[in-house]
Design brief:
8 helices, 44% helix, single chain, 7 strands, 261 residues, Rossmann fold
């Protein structure tokens, strides 16, 4: 796919992977629009990248998706690439009876329902373009869950499944459908990660991750699995119980002690 001369919408593009994607895509001669929820992050992104177009929006709210679609179609009619990047990740102890409903399902709305709704609403617009794409940013945890982040892992597995179905349904259109499955990446998402949890995990720089993503898109690699993400997918086929047990070790610091029989 040609990665210049496009008009690109990146959700959650004011920090981390989204912001680096915006930076590299601007350098390639694209018009880039990003969304974000935080006024301070939006201002910082605009200061860093003056050519960036910014829209305050929460992809986890269905009503805000409708507003976003209307704004983009009106102000950026040449839009031909959607990158569903917005995501949140929480550790959740399901023994904790005080967890609120929002704590339990907030990731579902942002990580899975948001991309599903936004993709569906923009498909008619994207089909009108001679060359267009939808890029869903999942995770290496789409292939093997990290039990300490059970809902996050479930949303990324769901996004992987949805992306495969979306690609099949759009195969006769002009829309290419990509999935980018990042491994552990040095972004704000990992800022509070427990040191013991990260033992043995190779963290990829956001720059290297984005370079791999863009190379994959340029070469029409529809499932882009940089670094340890590729290992997770293949280990889940070769030795699923072993790799799952390795990712389950982080539970030891939050689970209550086993009751003696």
């Amino acid at each position: 796919m040609k990665l210049s001369g496009n008009t690109i919408l990146i959700t959650g593009g004011t920090s981390g992977i989204g912001l680096e994607l915006a930076k590299k895509l601007l350098q390639k001669g694209n018009k880039v629009i990003v969304t974000g929820r935080s006024d301070s992050k939006i201002a910082a992104a605009k200061k860093l990248l003056p050519d960036l177009q910014v829209i305050k929006n929460d992809i986890g709210q269905a009503s805000e998706i409708e507003n976003l679609v209307n704004t983009v179609k009106k102000d950026f009619p040449d839009l031909n690439i959607l990158i569903n990047n917005a995501g949140i990740m929480q550790e959740l102890n399901l023994h904790d009876e005080s967890l609120t409903d929002n704590q339990l399902v907030g990731e579902l709305h942002t990580n899975l329902l948001g991309p599903i709704r936004l993709s569906h609403r923009l498909i008619p617009h994207l089909k009108q373009k001679s060359e267009s794409a939808i890029v869903n940013v999942s995770s290496g945890l789409a292939f093997v869950p990290l039990p300490i982040s059970p809902v996050y892992s479930a949303t990324k597995a769901g996004l992987n499944s949805f992306t495969r179905s979306l690609r099949a349904q759009l195969k006769t259109t002009s829309i290419r459908v990509f999935e980018l499955a990042p491994p552990a990446t040095a972004t704000p998402l990992l800022a509070d990660a427990n040191e013991m949890d990260m033992k043995g995990i190779s963290v990829m720089s956001v720059e290297a991750l984005v370079d791999a993503a863009l190379k994959g898109m340029e070469n029409d690699v529809y499932e882009i699995r940089p670094g340890q993400s590729n290992q997770l997918k293949w280990m889940n086929r070769i030795a699923p119980e072993f790799i799952f047990s390795q990712l389950s070790r982080t539970l030891d610091r939050i689970l209550p002690p086993a009751k003696s029989k």
